Structure formats: structure tokens, C-alpha cells
């Protein structure tokens, strides 16, 4: 069974997920379908044509660029107008300097101005996550450890935000509750033991990978003995974590060895201590802040 962290991290943004986010965002902005922009539609002639650029107003890692074309297409369809021409000058994952042009566009003024805030909201959020993730990736450079996201995402934006993590160089952990079993303290209490929880999951969902959160060396030994090959070490000081990692690694090889056990540090991680934690020998670090605390990036659409 392959754990989500072992999968390739090059999947593109799901176009259906993006289309859904754009549609919901436009409904919020424009009111009942097809919606209206009372300012733009009152002050600008129906046949007005405009040209402009989408640009970065601060340095960032770009993510969500497909929102430009998708938002323009949906707005044009609502209004019964031609979709503006969009020429992309950057790609998701690019590091951009302040002032860098992301896209050039031209077409009906009503479409461009009505689409403006929605496409900027989506790209600013995604680029903020990608930029924050890249800081962690850079901080871990050369250590061998990789940064993971979590399920602490904005409701309705999980696909977008986890894509942005990939564009920042990070790794997606499970997408939801359906694709990987994660045994935590409450599950252990309910099942009676770590081994009991693992046994029940294997009986019910034999095809699903299992990960176990541990707080002590005894829990780690029990989990490995029950067949777990992915442990999340929760809120353990670096010295204790290093000892646990060394113990697990010592048991991986040789006759009767466990084979590879993936180890993840979780809880209490900051950019200030990330290299100390990486030095313990863990494979991954999960950081909820990648998605729940990333500030947006300042992007703008300027006509000219």
C-alpha cells in the first residue's frame, strides 16, 4: 500500500475543482444567476473594450494562474459576451519579483472588470500558500526531510490549497478521511490499544494505508509490532525524537527487521526550529500553518 506522501507531487490542479470554486465565488459576488455588477454595467458601455495586465505587487511563488482564464470564461458566458484573450507570461511554481507580469488580457470591459476580484482572490490565496510553503522547503534544503500539509484547509478550497502546497515544493498528506487511515489518541482510546485500532482498520478497509500518531517509544514499538509502517511523532522534543528515530532505524534492517518505517514529526514546528527537528532523522514534518495561516499575496489587475 502506498502512502499519500510517497506519491508523485506533480498532479495538475483539477479543472473541475477550479471551475466549482470560480462558480461559487461569482455567485457570492454577483447575486442570483446570471448576476450583475451594478457599478460596471451602469458606468461602462456594453461594447467597451479594454486591455490590461495581471501582475505581482510583491515577490511570491505563483499558484492558481488557471483562475484567470476560467473566471473570464465563466463571466463571459453569464453575460453572453466574448471571452477576453488571455496571454500567460508566467507559470505556477515560478518565483516572481514585485512587478512581474503574470498575464496580459484584452476584451470586453464588462467581462474583465466583473472577473477581476474573483480571479485575484483565488490567485492571491493560492500564491500565498505556495509562497509560505516555499519558505519551509528552503529552510529544509539539504536535510533530507520534506514538509507536509494537513487537513487544516479552508472549507471548499482544499483542492486549490493542496495544489498550491505542491507548487511551493511541499508534499500533500492525505486528501481527506477516505484515502488514508490515521490513528490518533481518541481512536486508540476507543479501540482499547494501538494494535486494536490497526486490526480493526485492516479488517474493514484492507486496501487503505495506515498511519499512527505516537507520543512515546512504547507506543511506537506497539504500532510497528502491529504492522504500522508510518509513524507520526507528536510534540516530542528533538532529543527524545532523535532517540526514537535511532531506535526505529536500528530495527529496520537485518534478519527479522521491520523494513522501511516512514517517520513524521508533528506539532510545535516553526521555521526557527525546523532544522533541529530535521537533524533527528525524520522523513517528513507536517505543518498545518501552510494552509491555515498563510497570508495572501498582493496581486493586481491594472488596465492601460
In short:
This protein is of the alpha/beta class and about 300 residues long. The chain is built from eleven helices and twelve strands.
Describe the protein in words.
With 304 residues, the chain is an alpha/beta fold. Helix content is 41%, strand content 17%. It has two domains: 4-130 and 295-303, Quinolinate phosphoribosyl transferase, N-terminal domain (Aldehyde Oxidoreductase, domain 3); 138-292, Alpha-Beta Barrel (TIM Barrel). It has helices spanning 15-30, 38-43, 66-79, 109-139, 158-167, 185-191, 194-204, 217-225, 238-250, 274-278, 289-292; strands at 49-56, 60-61, 85-88, 95-96, 101-108, 146-148, 181-183, 210-214, 230-234, 262-266, 284-286, 299-303. The strands form three sheets. The protein has a six-stranded parallel beta sheet. Residues 37-127 form the Quinolinate phosphoribosyl transferase N-terminal domain. Pathway: Cofactor biosynthesis; NAD(+) biosynthesis; nicotinate D-ribonucleotide from quinolinate: step 1/1. Pfam families: QRPTase_C (PF01729), QRPTase_N (PF02749). Involved in the catabolism of quinolinic acid (QA).
Task: Give the overall silhouette.
Answer: elongated
Architecture of the largest domain, according to CATH?
Answer: Alpha-Beta Barrel
CATH classification class of the largest domain: Alpha Beta
List the strand order in the largest sheet.
Answer: 6-11-10-9-8-7
Any idea of the CATH topology of the largest domain? TIM Barrel
In round numbers, the mean pLDDT is 96
Q: Ranges with pLDDT <50 over ≥5 residues? A: none
What series of H and E elements makes up the topology?
A: HHEEHEEEHEHEHHEHEHEHEHE
Strand content: 15-25%
Amino acid at each position: 500500500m502506498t502512502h499519500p506522501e510517497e506519491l508523485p507531487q506533480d498532479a495538475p490542479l483539477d479543472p473541475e475543482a477550479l471551475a466549482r470554486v470560480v462558480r461559487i465565488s461569482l455567485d457570492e459576488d454577483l447575486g442570483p444567476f446570471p448576476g450583475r455588477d451594478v457599478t460596471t454595467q451602469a458606468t461602462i458601455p456594453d461594447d467597451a473594450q479594454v486591455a490590461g495586465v495581471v501582475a505581482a505587487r510583491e515577490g511570491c511563488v505563483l499558484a492558481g494562474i488557471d483562475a484567470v482564464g476560467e473566471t473570464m470564461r465563466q463571466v463571459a458566458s453569464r453575460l453572453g459576451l466574448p471571452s477576453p484573450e488571455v496571454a500567460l507570461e508566467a507559470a505556477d511554481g515560478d518565483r516572481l519579483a514585485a512587478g512581474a507580469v503574470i498575464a496580459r488580457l484584452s476584451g470586453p470591459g464588462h467581462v474583465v472588470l466583473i472577473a477581476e476580484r474573483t480571479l485575484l482572490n483565488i490567485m492571491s490565496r493560492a500564491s500565498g500558500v505556495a509562497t509560505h510553503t516555499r519558505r519551509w522547503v528552503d529552510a529544509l534544503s539539504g536535510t533530507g526531510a520534506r514538509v507536509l500539509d494537513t487537513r487544516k484547509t479552508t472549507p471548499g478550497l482544499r483542492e486549490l490549497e493542496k495544489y498550491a502546497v505542491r507548487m511551493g515544493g511541499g508534499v500533500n498528506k492525505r486528501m481527506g478521511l477516505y484515502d488514508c487511515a490515521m490513528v490518533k489518541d481518541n481512536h486508540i482510546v476507543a479501540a482499547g490499544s494501538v494494535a486494536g485500532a490497526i486490526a480493526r482498520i485492516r479488517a474493514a478497509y484492507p486496501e487503505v494505508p495506515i498511519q499512527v500518531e505516537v507520543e512515546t517509544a512504547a507506543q511506537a514499538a506497539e504500532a510497528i509490532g502491529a504492522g504500522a509502517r508510518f509513524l507520526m511523532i507528536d510534540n516530542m522534543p528533538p532529543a527524545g525524537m532523535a532517540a526514537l528515530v535511532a531506535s526505529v532505524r536500528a530495527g529496520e534492517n537485518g534478519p527479522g527487521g521491520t523494513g522501511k518505517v516512514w517517520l513524521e514529526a508533528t506539532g510545535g514546528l516553526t521555521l526557527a526550529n525546523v532544522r533541529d527537528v530535521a537533524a533527528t532523522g525524520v522523513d517528513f514534518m507536517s505543518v498545518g500553518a501552510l494552509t491555515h495561516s498563510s497570508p495572501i499575496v498582493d496581486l493586481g489587475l491594472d488596465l492601460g
